[in-house]
Amino acid sequence: MEQEKRGERESIEKFDIKLKSKPKDGVILQLHHTVRDANGECRRIRFSTGMFDDSNDKLACADNAGNIFILDFSELKFWKLTGVGACTSLQFVPNRQDTLIVATAKKYEMNFLDTETGHVSLTLTGHTAPVRHISFSNNLKTINLLTASPVEAILWELRNYTKYFTLNTYLGAQIQQIMFSPAGDYLVACFQNDTVQIWKHESMKSVKQIIPSELKHMKSIAFTMNGRAMAMAGLAPTLILFSMDTWKALKSIDMSKYNISGAHQIAFIPQLFDGGANKILAILSSDCVLYLLDLEALTIIHIIHPESSGIRRFVVSPTGKYFLCILQLGEVNIYNCSFVMDSVQNCQNCVVETMRRELPGTSTHKSASQEHTNSKSQIEQKMRICMDSARLRRILMQYGEYPDKFRSIIWRSLLDTPRNKSAYAALIEKGIHPAYKDIEKQFTIHSAVTLKNLKRLLSCLAHWCPLFGVMKFLPGFVFPFVKVLQKDPLLLFESVSSVLCNYCQLWFEYAPFPPISVLAIVENILAEHDQPLLNHFCEVGITSQTYALKILETAFSEVLTCSEWLILWDHILSNEPAFILMAVVSYNMVQRNALKRLKSHEQLENFFHMQNPIDKKTFLKKAYVLLNETPDDIHPRRFFKPFVSLEKGGCYQQFTGYPKATICLKLAKKDRKKCLKADKYTLKELTAKSQEKEINERMKTEAPSEHRSVQSDDESVQDCCIEKPKKTKKKSHDHFQSKGDFNSKETKEELIESIIYPATIHLERNRSGELRAIKKDKELCKHTRSKTKKKTSENKNETLEKEVEKLIRTYTNSDVSDT
């Protein structure tokens, strides 16, 4: 039976789900489990609990029949795990993909369940009552697991899965709710005797006990994401906000003003750009209605009351993107928070518009324009406050990424781009750079708009600095930025320019050769934190040019998916320039197991040119650990300059991050077409061709027309070299004497001297009209140049030196142009 069940679980069938695109009430999905009995009657099974994972990609919901439904929002799939048994609580394991903790109702066990196969990998036992609360500490030093029933709470050490601490209660003071604070520093419990106890996590010593006199029958507590404030509520119509910094009550709110007689459950709903100081509190009232209370304005902004039945319980996702409501009839409604807030805003606008129409003697057009001006100024003021770099980093650390809707604005704020429209227009007017005129032949880009934007960006970079016209990796480096920011070409250029100036420091120090300094820094960091992995690379025979440079030259776009790339660059642009090198080392360390299985150079080369599965949270966490724990003597910040934004004005600052004498500057000014033509011949062929040309010119000017038989064509020279007459010395000398070809001895000696080095071949027609080769004899050379030896040798050396220098320069330029 066990084998049959395992076989069934391994072949789990997945089904498609379809989310509502723009629901009016914010409900994107409704869940209900209906089965048909043997007699044909339909019976609905109620859902009992649900839980989101940290990344909001998955949701687990359990019903009373012992089935667990897994919903994957990224893949839009769902599947069912059967045979698990009735459960009382669920929790996803952080930093471990597809692992869910299920608290069973019978034996009070905690099973570690694989959500893909349904297999149980670990079971923890020790409770004497059903487990109602499961949470993990977010402390970087120690990550512990907390499980609690009404009568006891147990802390588990995750390294060896042993009990670390046990808290027992007595009758009348049983646990209502217990959890870690968001930072993991404190353990907070709410008891039935209306007390709140706070312990220090590391030492488990009691640091505070709260007994609110005006709050009776306490039921629930909730923390803001930054952990600085705690809310407490119960069946009495009172809500208390408590400061965790000063250990004092901030305010007490009378909920009866909002027709809320009491609260069964409360939870904060995180919002974008609130810095973790969440201001919206969800309150599940005693009459099973969910209220959304704005704690700043002290107003109810929305009420959720499904028509079918009341709400029994609700769960908010860790980032506030979704929340679900479990109805009393057993159904589950899943809400998108942004859709709910949009509906709230629309309702408010409708109310304002209705009031305007009802008020007599008012101009709707005028009031609308005034409201637009006021709202625009308010939005701009809020944006200036929210776009502070320190505030943005706090948001990033809490949410893990920036919202897609505001990513371009946030990147612009982080890079502090100057928006130099006139300077950018001057670069655009120069047109397409010759180096990127045929860029479509190198890359397959299906979108004509993307190709146009890529050409324009590369051309502007090449016009701004000639170096960027010859760096072959540049198109692949900037292409992902084009895909993200192509709607704003000015922002695209200034963002890429800022990245090249700051995050690509020392990359072009030895251009066009690899950045030796950068690669050495990466290798030193890897050796410091993971020497066995570096030893594996050395054994296989790959260097940092493979495991580091390949990643850097593509800006991580080849090894990460689109969403992973965006999240990584959110963190890179929010940190110092050294973070990008830490990300390279982190990627290698996270992929250690996969890399050690590869034993050949070719396999490792291919590994860094493809997307490989990676836990993005572990990847980013490791990068921050490397950034903070790398010794100062090998830390990149020792060699990097601090971030400097582009200057605002009529022109962009000059890029100086490369040697001035580099061959790249010469190549950028050189016409590449001429270089390619010159590259058809070798140096030896070019030398011979130049000498033959010189002989041909002299013979045309000094020899009579009947003896102008010298040919400069390479093919003729080869044909003439085949024939080598044995006796040519006397005949050739007499021939030139008898014909009277020269006016003086100096002219004769100069011509003979110029053609004997190194190709000493002269062509002459015999009486039959055929061409034959005449080889100059060495004795004749000695006899004819005895008087003018010094003079002619000096002239010969100068001529040859100039000619060879010219040829070498041409050949070198043509050869380097293709490297």
From TrEMBL:
<dbReference type="GO" id="GO:0034451">
    <property type="term" value="C:centriolar satellite"/>
</dbReference>
<dbReference type="Pfam" id="PF00566">
    <property type="entry name" value="RabGAP-TBC"/>
</dbReference>
<feature type="region of interest" description="Disordered">
    <location>
        <begin position="782"/>
        <end position="802"/>
    </location>
</feature>
<keyword id="KW-0963">Cytoplasm</keyword>
<dbReference type="InterPro" id="IPR051570">
    <property type="entry name" value="TBC1_cilium_biogenesis"/>
</dbReference>
<dbReference type="InterPro" id="IPR000195">
    <property type="entry name" value="Rab-GAP-TBC_dom"/>
</dbReference>
<feature type="compositionally biased region" description="Basic and acidic residues">
    <location>
        <begin position="693"/>
        <end position="711"/>
    </location>
</feature>
<dbReference type="GO" id="GO:0060271">
    <property type="term" value="P:cilium assembly"/>
</dbReference>
<keyword id="KW-0677">Repeat</keyword>
<keyword id="KW-0853">WD repeat</keyword>
<keyword id="KW-0206">Cytoskeleton</keyword>
<dbReference type="InterPro" id="IPR001680">
    <property type="entry name" value="WD40_rpt"/>
</dbReference>
<dbReference type="GO" id="GO:0060090">
    <property type="term" value="F:molecular adaptor activity"/>
</dbReference>
<feature type="compositionally biased region" description="Basic and acidic residues">
    <location>
        <begin position="791"/>
        <end position="802"/>
    </location>
</feature>
<dbReference type="InterPro" id="IPR036322">
    <property type="entry name" value="WD40_repeat_dom_sf"/>
</dbReference>
<protein>
    <recommendedName>
        <fullName>TBC1 domain family member 31</fullName>
    </recommendedName>
</protein>
<dbReference type="InterPro" id="IPR015943">
    <property type="entry name" value="WD40/YVTN_repeat-like_dom_sf"/>
</dbReference>
<keyword id="KW-0175">Coiled coil</keyword>
<dbReference type="GO" id="GO:0036064">
    <property type="term" value="C:ciliary basal body"/>
</dbReference>
<feature type="region of interest" description="Disordered">
    <location>
        <begin position="693"/>
        <end position="714"/>
    </location>
</feature>
<keyword id="KW-0966">Cell projection</keyword>
<feature type="domain" description="Rab-GAP TBC">
    <location>
        <begin position="401"/>
        <end position="576"/>
    </location>
</feature>
<dbReference type="InterPro" id="IPR035969">
    <property type="entry name" value="Rab-GAP_TBC_sf"/>
</dbReference>
<keyword id="KW-0970">Cilium biogenesis/degradation</keyword>
<comment type="function">
    <text>Molecular adapter which is involved in cilium biogenesis. Part of a functional complex including OFD1 a centriolar protein involved in cilium assembly. Could regulate the cAMP-dependent phosphorylation of OFD1, and its subsequent ubiquitination by PJA2 which ultimately leads to its proteasomal degradation.</text>
</comment>
